[in-house]
Amino acid sequence: MAEAHQAVAFQFTVSPDGIDLQLCHEALRQIYLSGLHSWKKRFIRFKNGVMTGVYPGSPGGFMVVVVSYMSYNQYRRLDPSMGLIAKLGQHMPISRYMSTDSQRIVGGVLVGTGLWVTIIMIMRNVLKSLLSWHGWMHARHGSVSWSTRLWLILVKVFSGRKPMLYSFQNSLPRLPVPTIKDTCRRYLESVRPLMEDERYERMEGLTKDFEKNLGPRLQWYLKLKSWWASNYVSDWWEEYIYLRGRGPIMVNSNYYAMDFLYVFPTSIQAARAGNAIHAIMLYRRKLDRAQRIKPSNCLSFSVFLFFSPLTIGPRLPDVLQHVNDSKHIAVYHKGRFFKVWMFYDGRLLLPREIEQQMERILADSSEPLPGEEKLAALTAGDRTPWAKARETYFGRGKNKNSLDAIEKAAFFVTLDDTEQRFEEDNPVKSLDSYAKSLLHGKCYDRWFDKSFNLIVFKNGTMGLNAEHSWADAPIIGHLWEHVLSMDPLKLGYTEEGHCCGEPHPNLPGPQRLSWDVPAECQEVIQSSLTVARNLADDVDSHIFPFIDFGKGLIKKCRTSPDAFIQIALQLAHYRDKKKFCLTYEASMTRLFREGRTETVRSCTLETCAFVRAMIGDETREECLSLLKLAAEKHQNMYRLAMTGEGIDRHLFCLYVVSKYLGEDSPFLKEVLSDPWRLSTSQTPLQQVELFDLVRHPEYVSSGGGFGPVADDGYGVSYIIVGENLINFHISSKHSSPETDSHRFGANIRQAMLDILDLFQLEKKTK
């Protein structure tokens, strides 16, 4: 272990003969390499900051503009400064110290720089105007209009040759504030199929009163914020939806991502952890140092918080603490916490060296200290007891040092002592158990406050548990796709299942963290664990791969795959509960600066009409006609949400303003109190080029999921993988007599088959 290694650069002893210095050259060498590594990172960050700051310009463009400008003026015998230097000379003694030629050069550089900055600002504003146009979203699938082609060409021209990850942020438009009138009209339209006539008339009256009286006043403040802030929603959404909540974030907020469905690269736990940890650190290097990750409208300001903990305090709210350049990870195994350095000899540890460190942890037979084993249950229970315990028991001494080691780690790793895996002979039970383990585990073996936990099971299967406040699922999905593509195909394993390479003969071992947890704190830990276990035991998870058909057949129906699935969910829900409900589908607003999510209210009048037709005696032709109307309506609502014309974030911000002003709005209060009894989200496969599913169809991801949002509702996540597979993740609560995740899964499967049958593709093929 690391404690056994020499930890100082030099020692000295005082004797009658004088002072005897004993220098440790290896320690000094490590100090030198660490400093060199740090300065290299600083230089790269500075360079990237400059490159991003002048985007869409570049230093090369600066040289071209300045040299061209000076050459032109030299050829025409003109004063490049246009008399600027001469005027400055009247007030400052420039001419005394500079010759005429020097003045020409300085003037040329100054004016050329001004010209270059002007060109950059023009290009940036033109690019912002281009990115504000969303007409391309309304084009028919498979066809590209001339206006869209021209738009693509202009965006390419004004984007420069090699945009970096954060280059587009300053060029993205601000999220627009919809009008009160449009938001109120769309809200009433969205709740019409869910309300009886009497309740709807009452809601209509509240809406009109709000639109006429309080609404315009709140809108004025919101407009003011939209002009001042980069995004009028994101900071309030982060604070009031995530950071101010005092309930458990486990299950209620955190979500999970699964491993490959059919492929098991190795059964050696330490080896799988070695490759996965190395791949994550390589992703961080690309993200943090070189920004070599391709710009994507799913990646924005949130990526700055990729390796950050959620830190809580005794007062509201929780805060996101960005840890800059953490060089270690925290590892949990059988009740013990370890600190593992990721760098040695001035370089990142190789996969086999990380495996070596994991092997040492697995071989450690020491017992947990009193209160250590279940310590992480504090992060799984209610937030207030954890905040008070953190301040009382973890504010100083060894507890503070150990807590800092966890919170300042790049990420958290759990070497789980259970086995999870998809089993062909028992698919339902195995996948349900796997999902629940990733979502909550034992409630004390994940650190739920970390931005994400890498969980590696005893048989080599792995997954992620991610904290939600810092970013949405597509951000963590981008990282996870990188890890899964690197692990078996690029990093690989030996025939015995170990990571490629050799162990390091002199690598210092992991450091065991030390705790002093008093009996009073142990009682708080046990209380939090009880709360967390009650929550975890109530989760009813069901994961099933839908293999009957996939995106390929849905496209032949000339229907959006997402609309197809969302309408199937409405049909399944009606069959399951015999009623419609307020439905949440997450949509991204990454077309705007610092955009996060917006809501698509998928339960529409058109969808309800289709469902009633399917339940009733209408003909296939009538059902098919209603289906097309419902799909078109859904696609239009999705476009509105993506282009800043959604209603729920606008209503949320109006409610926040009303609270700041001390105004009580019956309309907003009722709107925000309606529960989302069906909460849905699609997990997009963003980096399709990383997976060749044609040649290697077995490398399909299981996707990920989340807990139920309402006590009597369902949470549904789905991922469309390749052309022939859709994975569904369903969650609900055992305590609700209205829900059953397995029953709902069967209804989803039948609804998908029934909708496909309307198109009669088999007859068309014949």
TrEMBL record:
Catalytic activity of the protein: (R)-carnitine + hexadecanoyl-CoA = O-hexadecanoyl-(R)-carnitine + CoA
Source species, domain of life: Eukaryota
Ranges for domain Carnitine O-palmitoyltransferase N-terminal: 1-47
Gene Ontology MF terms in the entry: carnitine O-palmitoyltransferase activity
Name the record gives this protein: carnitine O-palmitoyltransferase
UniProt GO cellular component terms: mitochondrial outer membrane
Family classification: Belongs to the carnitine/choline acetyltransferase family.
Topological type in the membrane: Multi-pass membrane protein
Matching PROSITE patterns: ACYLTRANSF_C_2
Lipid metabolism as UniProt keyword: yes
